[in-house]
Amino acid sequence: MGSVRATRVRRLRIRKAIQRSTLAAVVLSAGFAYLALEKRVTLVVDGRPEAVRTLSSNVGQLLAGEGIALRAGDLVQPPPGTPLADGMTVVVDLDGIHGVQIDSRGVGVWVVEGSAGPFAKLAVRPIEDLSSAGGFVEPSRVFGARVVVKGKERDVLTNAATVRELLSAMGIRFDDRDRVLPSPSTPLKPSLLVRVVDIDVRVRRVERPIPPTTVTTSTFELPPGEVRVVQAGRPGLLVEAWRVRRVDGTVVSRELLWRRVVRPAVPTRRLVGARADGEQGVQVGEASWYHAPGTGFTAAHPWLPFGTVVTVTNLDNGRRVTVTINDRGPFGGRIIDLSEEAFAAIAPLGQGVADVRLTW
């Protein structure tokens, strides 16, 4: 009987030991599963960072578990439906802020634009503040930076590691011509100033009209001074190619590459009645003055041959001056343009225009 009882007790002890081992294994497995599902997140609410351990599957569940009730106008980045990942930073602004650009997955590089609210507070907060959030959780690196693009300043908050990642998250594209200071590979640090200088070089095609020239022929078949147009002029077309360099949208240089005449201009041809020997040419109209080439008593006339000596009489005061034609013009209804010295001999320069009679 004593032997039977000892065997029964031994079996009972073995059964209890197996049960305890099984329970310990279950508890240990549950612990490992808990650790596998647990995520370490940095939660920033109105500029106050806090390290949080959570089993939540997305941002919304995290906030609900922390007792944060969102209202209309509050801002959460990444959005509430974003799946949580270990090491993420969740920023909550209960005052509301706008102007946010962020990766659509809510994981990876994100950028928050704006200089107000908790984002600005976090941007100027030393990174050690985040590391001292508590526990063994090391929060994501978050930096405040100022980005200058085409002269416009933008204050941002980001978890980007380099200048290249920051610009990419902001949607700023650059090529080999552009200047990025500091270089795109530069690691971000607090309050870094990033400047992107947009340099654009293009070849521009420009069309310019070629004004027609005037060819004047003297003839005895017309009364002296009478003008007859025998061929109407037509403008031509000139094409130029320019290399234009712009920096931040402002043209800084233009270089002419080539110039071609696509369509030559057709000259205006006219006949002007010439004075026969012994005859005197007379013309009445308005005279003006201009800064003539050279000095002396000279004048510009639309068609009188160069070297013609003309007497100009002011019809208002009778004063006369003799000039030599050495230039062409005017072409606006007046009959002669006198040099400054010649006009001053018959009228004050301030008068500008005088009624005159020309004889030659």
Write a structural description.
The protein has 360 residues and is α+β, with helices and mostly antiparallel strands. It has six helices and 22 strands. It has helices spanning 2-37, 59-65, 117-124, 127-131, 163-169, 340-344; strands at 39-45, 48-54, 75-77, 89-93, 100-102, 110-113, 143-149, 152-158, 179-181, 192-197, 199-210, 214-219, 227-231, 236-247, 250-263, 268-273, 282-290, 298-300, 309-314, 320-327, 336-339, 353-359. A six-stranded mixed β-sheet has the order 5-6-8-7-10-9. Residues 96-107 and 115-139 have low confidence and may be disordered.
Key descriptive features of the protein:
six-stranded mixed sheet; alpha+beta; six-stranded mixed barrel
In short:
The chain is α+β, with helices and mostly antiparallel strands and 360 residues long. It has helices spanning 2-37, 59-65, 117-124, 127-131, 163-169, 340-344; strands at 39-45, 48-54, 75-77, 89-93, 100-102, 110-113, 143-149, 152-158, 179-181, 192-197, 199-210, 214-219, 227-231, 236-247, 250-263, 268-273, 282-290, 298-300, 309-314, 320-327, 336-339, 353-359.
